[in-house]
Write a structure and sequence with these properties.
The protein is built from 13 helices and 23 strands. It is of the alpha+beta class. Strands 1, 2, 3, 6, 7, 8, 9 and 23 form an 8-stranded mixed beta sheet that branches. Strands 11-15-12 form a 3-stranded antiparallel beta sheet, with no helix packed on it. A hairpin with a 4-residue loop joins strand 4 and strand 5. The protein is globular and about 65 Å long. The N and C termini lie far apart (about 65 Å).
Length: about 550
């Protein structure tokens, strides 16, 4: 009797899911197997927008998400959006920012703060664009709710906390992905697949070519790629001579933590190093919602000695990237020579096992929590900075199930596909034409620091921080979303796109991922309808579809 009841329950669950999602679900050898026209792996903003595009285009779709919370960085602290030229953000990306505007256009949204007060802080014009009914600056939970609303309204199936079996979970046949299997044993088959992760795990597991690290400048004829010793952009470098040694000016005492003892490499040469990660923190100075900074386990002030020495030189720009969000909150980003960027501690992340990645993420969390504790409590911090810092804390109403800490680390760069076309700084700077444009970017070419090293003169310095204007918007090629045909014929990659390190420094912005997610899904729909490969999709038809849906392609 129990056995009959069990199978009846399974049948009812399967029937309910099929009615809601238009996906096919079957029980094979006691395991659930699901199929849909399009399978999307990832829980990022690109993944969710791609799913919406697929569903609105009449295709069945399943989002297989390793994340429980949807939206990636857009809903995990990066609320002070790196928009660049907003006029080139169209389609579903603009709909996302419109839905954010709809939330903040209600009186209920403005607890603890008057809407006009927020606007008077100088954020009224860029944040709330009433004329275009868009909002570009927002709290994390608001963004997450927008993504959840889209999923709910479109009745899209999302399987959360499902991690791709990276060793044996991708089944290929004649150059096409047939199915993917997660560590829980669930299998998903489809006609088209999208890898919408920050890491490119599906892409790599499918045998698609990719690159990790910086190319030498000669690889693609670029100026800003490779090691950039002596190039000091922004303010993220040591502006005074500061000793790297535990006992200042005494090399025999050893290097302070988080300083490489290796040669940084020949200028413009390539390496396997990647720009630094951090958490984009949502902080508040509103006492009713403020949680004091926690002291992390194993806290060691020696890790922040370089910051103390920088403060001692009179440097005062600590609070410059406490960018204001609504309701007395911030999107706090890296700023200065030693800040939230955990330089040099992420090199093995892209290729690491899930277990190792968790260790890296935890190390970054402890480092950043220790940094906050240090500035708020260490007696070597100047009194005026410390007094101001003690006014701040984590936001009690954000990330409630994670100790008010962001769910997603800022993976600024991991794997990058080597696809049909590689985007380089030459396309971004309009030195070379871009074939088959399907969306636009416009943010500065922006790489954070890659390494911290000892200069020949014996002082410490950072390397890798680049900020170069693109001199206006640029187009992004459809062929940069597509693997080489010999690698895979039914996969699109809207996040780990085919690009050089330095070009990815601009492409990697969240609005662009929203744009590319929609364009990739539209291409997948066409490939299904035309019964062709992603490489052979009729570009003119794709462009026509995208333009009709409000995408700004050129």
């Amino acid at each position: 009797m129990k056995s009959k009841f069990k199978y009846l329950t399974v049948f009812l669950v399967l029937a309910g899911l099929m009615m809601q999602t238009s996906c096919k679900i079957s029980l094979v050898k006691g395991k659930l197997e699901a199929s849909a026209d399009i399978i999307i792996y990832g829980g990022t903003s690109a993944a969710i927008v791609a799913a919406v595009e697929a569903k609105r285009s009449g295709k069945s779709v399943i989002v297989v998400s390793p994340d429980i919370h949807l939206g990636g960085l857009s809903s995990s602290g990066l609320g002070f959006t790196d928009t660049g030229d907003k006029s080139v953000i169209g389609g579903l990306a603009r709909e996302f920012y419109h839905r954010v505007w709809q939330h903040y256009n209600t009186d209920e949204a403005w607890v603890w703060q008057n809407k006009e007060e927020y606007g008077n802080k100088g954020q009224g014009t860029p944040a709330m664009d009433g004329e275009n009914r868009t909002m570009w600056i927002f709290e994390p939970h608001v963004a997450e709710q927008v993504f959840e609303d889209l999923i709910s309204e479109e009745k899209i199936r999302v399987d959360r906390n499902e991690w791709l079996d990276r060793k044996n979970g991708v089944k290929m046949k004649e150059g096409r992905i047939i199915s993917i299997t997660t560590l829980s044993g669930k299998a998903y088959s489809g006609k088209m697949f999208l890898d919408a992760t920050y890491e490119g795990d599906l892409m790599a597991s499918a045998g698609v070519s990719y690159h990790v690290g910086r190319e030498g400048k000669d690889a693609y004829g670029e100026e800003w790629n490779g090691v950039q010793t002596g190039v000091l952009h922004h303010k993220h470098w040591f502006q005074s001579d500061i000793s790297p040694y535990i006992i200042a000016k005494d090399p025999t005492s050893g290097l302070l933590p988080r300083i490489s003892g290796e040669d940084p490499g020949e200028k413009y040469s390539g390496d396997n190093k990647i720009q630094a990660y951090c958490f984009r923190l949502c902080m508040t100075d509103h006492n009713e919602n403020r949680v004091p900074f926690p002291k992390p386990e194993g806290y060691d002030p020696l890790h922040y000695e370089l910051l103390a020495r920088s403060f001692a030189t009179g440097r005062k720009d600590w609070f410059e990237k406490f960018d204001p969000l609504p309701i007395h909150k911030t999107d706090t980003n890296n700023h200065g020579p030693l800040s939230s960027d955990n330089i040099g501690m992420n090199y093995d992340y892209p290729e690491a096992t899930y277990e190792r990645r968790k260790e890296i993420i935890k190390e970054h969390e402890n480092y950043q929590k220790g940094l906050l504790w240090f500035v708020a409590n260490d007696p070597r911090v100047p009194e005026d900075i410390q007094k101001e810092m003690q006014r701040w804390g984590l936001a009690m109403d954000e990330f409630k199930d994670n100790g008010n800490w962001p769910h997603q680390i800022y993976v600024r760069e991991a794997r990058r596909m080597l696809g049909e076309f590689v985007m380089t700084e030459n396309e971004l700077l309009k030195k070379s034409p871009t074939p088959k444009p399907i969306g636009m970017g416009s943010y500065n070419i922006d790489s954070h620091n890659v390494q911290r090293y000892v200069k020949p003169d014996g002082f410490v310095q950072n390397e890798g921080d680049i900020g170069v204007s693109t001199n206006g918007p640029y187009t992004i090629s459809y062929s940069s979303l597509v693997p080489k045909k010999e690698d895979c014929e039914n996969l699109l990659v809207p996040v780990c796109v085919s690009s050089s390190h330095i070009a990815f420094g601009s492409i990697r912005m969240e609005p662009v991922f929203l744009i590319l997610g929609q364009s990739a899904a539209a291409a997948a729909v066409l490939a299904i309808d035309e019964e062709t490969t992603v490489q052979e999709v009729d570009y003119n038809k794709l462009k026509e579809v995208l333009v009709a849906k409000g995408q700004i392609v050129e």
